[in-house]
Amino acid sequence: MTVALTEDLLAFDREHLWHPYTSMTEPTPVRLVTGARGGELEVDGRWVVDGMASWWSAIHGYRHPVLDAAIAEQAARFSHVMFGGLTHEPAVAVGRRLVEITPEPLERVFLADSGSVAVEVALKMVLQYQRGCGRTDHPSGRTRMLTVLGGYHGDTFHPMSVTDPDGGMHAMWRGVLPGQVFGPRPPAYDASPASIAEWADALRDLAARHAHELAGIVVEPLLQGAGGMWPYPPACLRILREVADEHGLLLVFDEIATGFGRTGHLFASELVTPDVLCLGKALTGGYLTLAAVLTTDRVARGISGSEAGVVMHGPTFMGNPLACAVASASIDLLLASDWPARVGAIGTHLAAGLAPLRSLPGVRDVRTIGAVGVVQHDHPIDVVAHPDAALAAGVWLRPFRDLVYAMPPYVAGAGELDRLVAGIGAAVRAG
To answer: How many beta carbons lie within 10 A of that of residue 134, not counting itself?
Structure first.
């Protein structure tokens, strides 16, 4: 690509294209991607390690021949057809695979078209279930959700309402969003039994006080993602299950960011089974947008008992054949691999490589879980200087708030992980 064409593309982008959480009038710089392969991106004409896996979705890396073939083969048949009144083999196939690999009670599948939409659908399911079961003992019915501080569930309105109201990027919408009930953030992953018990007591007390108006509980299990990259103990999931059962609430696990092996478990739902499970991101291996909401027959029957009798949602691109075809191929590819060993090796490499950064000025914490490595500062970071420093070291990172972190593709080898650790170190040292 010529220098003139590159400059023309970047100039148009700067003047006309909005990027996520970026000002249109004073945009931060963007870099031009011209290629991708394996665990690397060609950025500004240079091949660099992708530490983000395209926001945690490209678990198999880029240009994987199996996934490329799945897209091409389906496109040769048909690329899209409405899901209202029609079905097709790719949708049936991916639904069957999801039912097979998730806990047994989760056997009803809604194919959404993005993570935020999946959470929207899940919350609608919870509310309709309570209506269908006649649980409207509160004057306004059971219409509120219990969640915890530090969470992030998406950028559309109901998902924003269960995202951390202060640190979750949506504070400006306070007063407009539905008012939800927020419990304390779960304790750290290595918390003592006493700390877990203290958290549990606070959560139980909060749930008891609001039980008459609550419909369900929604959390990101094991790892809170964009709310702070915060891993917490599996014991907290069992407590959430107990609280939900005690008060007749539905438990929703948002595994959009961390499903398909990222935390070292295929799904956290293997540890504790929710009533509703949201999946996305890595579902298609990063190729196309697709999400899924799985729930139980009990929940489906409760929804059918509501006045509508149906789930009141139906996206235009629901069950898109291209996305479903590549999702099935991605799931098969993952399960055919020794992904636990691969994720474990990445985690070990990140833990060892990032540990020395604890001693640097301005570093508050270093933590890892599965194939995730996080360095937390004691101050907000420079969202321009930090990526620039990492890129100069041959790595693409996208830090936010006070965090420099990595979630690389599972195909990253030892050499790429060495470069990734060096890039994180360079970003951290950028201040």
So the answer is: 10
Evaluate whether 219 touches 254 at the Cβ level (below 8 Å).
yes
Alpha-carbon gap, residue 50 to 68, rounded angstroms: 19
If we measure between CA atoms, which residue out of 8, 27, 5 comes closest to residue 17? 27
- Which residue, chain included where needed, has tokens 């729930």? 295
Helical H runs in 248-384?
297-304, 321-336, 339-354
The two structure tokens encoding residue 199 = 């958290």
- Per the CB < 8 A criterion, the answer to whether 408 and 417 are in contact is yes
306 is in an annotated binding site: no
248: tokens are 């007749």
Residue 164: active-site member? no
Q: For residue 400, what is the DSSP state? A: B
116 has binding-site annotation: yes
Question: pLDDT, tens digit, for every residue of 225-241?
Answer: 999 999 999 999 999 99
Query: Does pLDDT of 171 surpass 90?
Result: no
What is the distance between the alpha carbons of residues 315 and 296, in angstroms, rounded to a whole number?
A: 21
pLDDT at 245: 98
Active-site residue flag, 124: no
What would the two tokens of residue 42 be? 């060609």
**281 appears as a binding residue in the annotation:** yes
Q: 251 near 242, Cβ under 8 Å?
A: no
For the chain, helix (H) and strand (E) counts, in that order, are 13, 16
- Under 8 Å between Cβ of 290 and 90: no
152 is catalytic: yes
- Residue located via tokens 């003139």: 4
What are the start-end ranges of the E strands in 100-249?
Answer: 108-112, 144-148, 181-183, 214-219, 223-224, 230-231
